[in-house]
Specification:
heterodimer; A: about 300 residues; four-stranded antiparallel sheet; about 35% strand; globular; B: about 260 residues; alpha/beta; six-stranded mixed sheet; about 35% helix
Chain lengths: ~300, ~260
């Protein structure tokens, strides 16, 4: 359709062409010289970019081999072509090597990503979930997920959570990361299992942890700090609050309460008392839950989260 | 404007056949609406910075997909009347606000999903005053179809949500029209929805535009993980409905999909 190409700007066409030329690897062989990676451009608010550089098949043979092994371990389909690239991902503020399997019509059927240390970040098949039929049991899904995580070199601890995947009818099986008995907020090994028991994806999220404070505040102190802030914030606003939980967690400092603290670069996680607060009164109409991250060392509010 | 754009498409196709430049000939309106005043110091005593982050990302990524003009409305201009009076002309719609599935006026078990408009400068939201119901949106859309609808709110991706039908998007994953609806199933932390939307757009628009499918972007974002659950009974879960092979191109949704393999 002529109208389609008309809307692709000349700039986009040029960019598309450049990326296509630089990235194609066929049967593990690079067909164009790699270009140096530019900086990962990141406007903090809204316009992240993704900078891709072709993987040199010779210099990155191990990454390509790891990707192939992972694909086979998970039973992902083998493509007719593979594309390897190093990605500076401004959307997720991370860098990784990514190898995609491409089918005969040029569609990505699966991809694998490895971090700078060569650890699996994600392996995802994209050739479409099967439809119909009954789903495997929770126990079967969990056992399959655990085997798959192990087969890809990921740690799956003893305690897992299996949730029905509303989108596929399959299962999402998760192992939360815990360090020294303390949960790391959001870090996990996650395996998505299709209803037929096959693996859709295996992923791992793990962040750097800062040094723990030499002295950890008592939870009562954190509760008092959170309460003092909430009382001050909600004063004269026809709103009240109830502190629901105070839990010690590793968290990423963030700019939830302060736009000057929003950064593109990931920060080491810090130990904090995560204090969840339930608004009451007027604020309950539009704010369902507030989380304050109270630094476990100095008591400062280093971030938070909201359920609006 | 939608009807105008239909004409422009026809003109553009005609123009292209005779070699005339048709750059920017067609308009495929998109609106990004983000409730921010409910989340400022006026109402909370502190500034919740997430509405602006979600808003900025959506504006930039709708534009990358080719929707134009993308009208961004962060704050007091996000009113029920503004939404309902412009939605008919849109091809893509994004909302970031408080959302939920409420009983319909006919009573339980009928649901009439909704989200809150921005309360306006210096005001705070009231559920009774500020709700934008799916029934009202359905009336305003008047049977018009949409390419991309994203409800960046709680609950509107659940099976009981009536929001997709307000945009004529059936809750199936086998649609053939060029349509895609995305929402969250349960309550969701803002950090989680922002991470998900970054990953979603990063996959979708990170490479050459219109070479990937929105459903694959959903799969990618859902699979990378790192999403904190609100509670054990409310895990992080996004959901989608529509065409599994839609590349996000702005088009008349029912006009067929030349880039979607059969």
């Amino acid at each position: 359709m002529p109208i389609l190409s008309s809307r692709i700007s000349a700039r986009s066409i040029a960019g598309t062409f450049a990326v296509a030329v630089c990235l194609v690897v066929s049967a593990g062989r690079l067909t164009a010289a790699p270009r140096p990676a530019g900086p990962s451009s990141q406007d903090v608010l809204g316009t992240p970019t993704r900078v891709e550089t072709a993987l040199d098949a010779t210099g990155n043979a191990s990454a390509l081999a790891r990707a192939g092994n992972t694909r086979d371990a998970l039973g992902f389909p083998v493509g007719v072509q593979r594309i390897g690239k190093h990605v500076r991902d401004g959307f997720e503020s991370v860098e990784y090597d990514e190898v995609s399997e491409i089918d005969s019509v040029g569609k990505v059927t699966s991809l694998t990503q490895f971090d700078a240390k060569g650890r699996l970040r994600a392996a995802i098949r994209l050739d479409g979930a099967p439809t119909g039929g009954s789903s495997v049991s929770r126990e079967t899904a969990t056992a399959t997920a655990k085997r798959s995580a192990a087969a890809t070199g990921l740690t799956a601890g003893a305690t897992s959570v299996a949730e029905v995947d509303q989108a596929t009818g399959g299962w999402t099986v998760r192992w939360a990361r815990v360090e020294g008995g303390v949960p790391v907020r959001g870090d996990e090994t996650r395996v998505r299992v299709w209803p037929n028991g096959r693996i859709q994806s295996v992923s791992n999220v793990g962040h750097e942890l800062a040094t723990a404070p030499s002295v950890t505040l008592a939870p009562e102190t954190a509760r008092r700090i959170a309460s003092a802030n909430m009382t001050r914030w909600f004063a004269n606003r026809s709103s009240g609050y109830a502190i629901q939980t105070v839990n010690l967690e590793w968290v990423e400092p963030n700019g939830a309460f302060d736009p000057s603290r929003i950064t593109a670069a990931p920060q080491p996680y810090r130990l904090a008392w995560v204090t969840d607060v339930k608004p009451t009164g007027a604020a309950a109409d539009y704010m369902w839950l507030i989380s304050l991250f109270v630094d476990a060392g100095d008591g400062n509010i280093i971030g938070g989260d909201f359920v609006e | 404007m939608r009807r105008a754009s239909t004409l422009l498409v026809s003109l553009a196709i005609a123009a292209s056949t005779i070699g005339v430049s048709i750059q920017s000939a067609a308009a495929y309106d998109a609106h990004v609406w983000s409730n921010s005043d409910a989340f400022t110091a006026t109402c909370l005593g502190f500034l919740d910075t997430y509405p602006k982050q979600h808003y900025a990302l959506a504006v930039s990524q709708f534009a990358k997909l080719g929707f134009s003009p993308v009208a961004g409305t962060l704050g007091p201009a996000f009113t029920r009347s503004a939404f309902l009076s412009t939605v008919f002309y849109d091809y893509a719609v994004y909302v970031h606000s408080h959302g939920d599935n409420y009983w319909a006026s006919s009573g339980a078990p009928n649901v009439d999903s909704g989200f809150l408009q921005d309360p306006g400068s210096g005001k705070c939201n009231s559920n009774t005053r500020d709700m934008v119901r799916s029934s009202a949106i359905r009336a305003a859309t008047a049977g018009t179809s949409y390419n991309v609808v994203i409800m960046s709110t709680c609950m509107l991706g659940s099976k009981s949500s009536t929001m997709p039908s307000a945009f004529q998007i059936a809750k199936v994953k086998t649609a053939t029209d060029r349509e895609f609806y995305l929402g969250y199933v349960y309550h969701v932390w803002d950090s989680a929805s922002l991470r998900f939307e970054k990953a979603f757009w990063g996959y979708m628009n990170g490479g050459a535009i219109h070479t990937r499918w929105l459903a694959d972007a959903y799969t990618y974002a859902s699979s990378i993980g790192g999403y904190e659950a609100v509670s054990s009974s409310e895990p992080f879960q996004a959901n989608w409905w529509g065409n599994p092979k839609f590349d996000g191109s702005p088009y008349l949704p029912t006009a067929g999909c030349p880039t979607c393999p059969s």
